[in-house]
Structure formats: structure tokens, C-alpha cells
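Fig. S4 source data, part A: sequence.
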Amino acid sequence: MSIQLYNTLTKTKEPFKPLEEGKVKLYLCGPTVYDLLHIGNFRGAIFFNLLRNWMELSGLDVTFVYNYTDVDDKIIKKANEEGVESTVISERYIKEFEQDFNRLGLKKHDHNPRVTEFMPQIIKFVEDLVKNEKAYVIEGEVFYSIDSFDTYGKLSGKNIDDLEAGQRVEVDKRKKNPFDFVLWKPSKDGEPSWDSPWGGGRPGWHIECSAMIQSLLGDTIDIHGGGIDLIFPHHENEIAQGEGRTGKCYCNTWVHNEFINLSDEKMSKSLGNVITGRSFMDKWHPEILKYLFLSVHYRSQLAINDDKIRGAISALARIYTALSNAHQVTEFEGGGVVNKSFANTLSQHDAKIKKNLDDDFNTGEVVASVFEVVRAFNSLNLLKKAKDKNSRPTAEAFLAWLKKYGDMMALFGQDPSKFMLELDDILISDRKLDKSLIEELVAKRNEARDSKDWALADKYRDELSGMGIELQDGNPDRQWCVSKS
């Protein structure tokens, strides 16, 4: 196995070696279901989908768990505001998330556990921590004692002595250490509640993931993923809980994706610059969102702005134009073999893609390889070589190659003709163009050409060009398109 991963725990790239040969246990923190997810929340879903797919292409059997946090303060707050049970809110937003997830065309996970389905396991987990003297009970509330866990802070590198307790919230004077965190808390009136040895209550956030992981995947897992914002305190606390319960390593490799920025500003609700995944996909397209995320390394911050989005549209248009041309070439008569030079190009980029994905999933270089292959295919100009018996098998090889890596990335699977029309509509809306006026000018130009009034035809052509419209006189199916540059 040649895959190397950057491990947040050791701060180095390491050869990935599964706990059990040929099998991978992968857990990714999923959404707290109280609202639509912002686009940053989808970066992990999109990247770890690729990670799982590449590992499977590499011959590994991956069990992928992605949870739903369906009991939480934010869910309860929203339920109280609407005067409904918290389950109404969580069920609503699980369905909303799954709708967005399906639009992205990502492969389903093996398990999507909900916190509320694991209450007996959570309670037993907390009982074990109390028994192991890793946790203590005060007035029906259970706290984890971080002083009982000697290596607390090993993931984040934070020195607890240097942290300022109470800097943002008032310290609970009952705690033995200001940074002790809650495992179980009594429920207030109107809040969901479960019976426990400490009275009616509900779990703290951190214990939920640990209980689901050890219930579904065992005491130790191969990879735990999430955004860098979860390193501390959430993932740090997960380690303390998991290892405090079993005395075994909780997770071998921690993989964290970076933030995204909007217009070079960190996206946050306090700044008011949050864009939901759904609103982005509605305005632009799921394919554009996936392309943006995978065109850069997962550990690099990504600035999303209008220029980046338009660059993604231009890039996708080039790829889909090549796909459209290749499909047309597959209608030619075949019988030959794949162009030798092109076959070598495919082989070379197979090797490059493997090298780049095995080296901590450098997806930006994978996208670069895709463009090199597209450029090589376009240079063959096969649409003008209908009589060359090698044209069809070469186009088929290109389509198969791009499908292999497209399926892995959940990209390039749209119908090319339909997708190019969708891009036109997106750009017409973005540039505030009048589609009916465009079609009217195209029709008038056609009339002028039919009348051999070349000066008038050129006038309409120039007017359309000024609007960013490219004419496609040789295309019987589509006479114009919007410039993607």
C-alpha cells in the first residue's frame, strides 16, 4: 500500500497502513441538523467521498460512517421558536441535507447513524468513564476530568495551562478543572430527555461521536475526518473519551480539511457572509461546487469569489466540449485501434494521478492531468477524421478514461449537451442578459444572411459579440452559446 496521508496527530505525512489488511474504518463528522448547510460544510463531504473512492479503486474495502447530530442546543432552540418537538426539526433538516447530498451525486455512506438511535450506547459509555475515574458526577451532570488523561491536547497541540478559562463563557465553579467538559446533562423543561443513572437528561456533543464510532467500528479506527475547526475541542475530547474508556488508541490517522473563504473573508454567520450549499447550487450548479473544492488541495484554504466561479465554468466548459465531441466521434465507423500517442498520454496520466492521489490526495494535480488529457484529445481533431478507423476507438478510450476518474471525483457525469445549455443559462442570469433578445438578434442575422445582406448580418454579429455571445454557424443543433471566458 503506497498511500500517504497527513496525520494531524503527528503533524507529518505517513504511509497509510490499515489496522486490518485490506479494510479501512473511516468516520467523518456529519451535520447538526437544525438548518441548511453552508457550502463550507460540503467540502468534507465532497473530499472524503473522493478519498473513499480512491481507496476502493486501490483495492481496499472501506466502511464509511457519516453521522447526523439530531439532538443539540441549536435544534432545541429552533424547535422552541417554532413551537414543535425537536424531532420535527431534526427530521426536516435530515431530509433537506439528503436532498442536497443527492444533488451532488456523491456515493452513499455505509452508515448514517443518528445520535438518538444510540442513547443506550452513549449512557453505557459514560458509565464506563465514571467507573474508570475519567469522569465525575455533580447534581445529575457528568463531566470528563481532563486532568485524568495525561496526553490531553496531543491532537491540537494546545497547552491547557496557557488557555484562558472563561474567556468566552462563564466558568462552571462546580468543575474540578475549568476545561472539564460535559458528558451528560440534565434536561430542562421542554427539552428532550432520556432516563439515565444520573437522572433524566441528554448527552453532551463530544460523547455522541465517540459512542457511535465504537459501537459501529470498534475501539480503534483507521481514519477520522472533519474540518479543521473540529480539531479543538471536539476531536481532542473524542480522543480523551475513547482512550479513557478502552486504554487503546482511538484513531490512527486524523485528516482535516481547511476552511473556505468568501471574497477572501473567512465565511461565518457573525460576518453575515454565509452561503448555503443549496443556494449556491441553485444559482450556479452542483458540478461547479465540486470542481471548485477538488481543484485545490484539501489542506489549502480556498477563496471562493466570482472570478473563481467563472474560472470553474470556463474549465468545465472545455472538458464538456471535449466530451461532446468524443460522443459524436463514437458514431463514426470503427474497427481500428486507439491512437498510439494518445494511448501513451492516457498511460502517463494514469501514473501521474496515482502518484498525486497516493501523496496525500493532491486533487489539484489530478485536475491538471484531466486538462492535459483533454488538450491531447482536442489536438487530434477527430471530428474531421470520420474516415479514420482509429478515430472511434480513440474517442471511446478518452470517454472511458474520463469516466473512471470522473466517477471517482463525482464529476464529469452530466449529459454534455444538456450541461452546456445549463451553463449558458447560468451565465445569461449572471451577466443579466436578455435571452429573448439574443434569440431575436440571431434570427435577424440569419434572415440577413439568407438575403445576402452581409453588412447587416455583420452588424448583428458584432452586437451579439458585444454581449458575449459566440455564434456557432456550423452547428445545426445550437446556433449560439455564451462565451465562457
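Fig. S4 source data, part B ends here. The CA atoms of residues 449 and 457 lie 6 Å apart.
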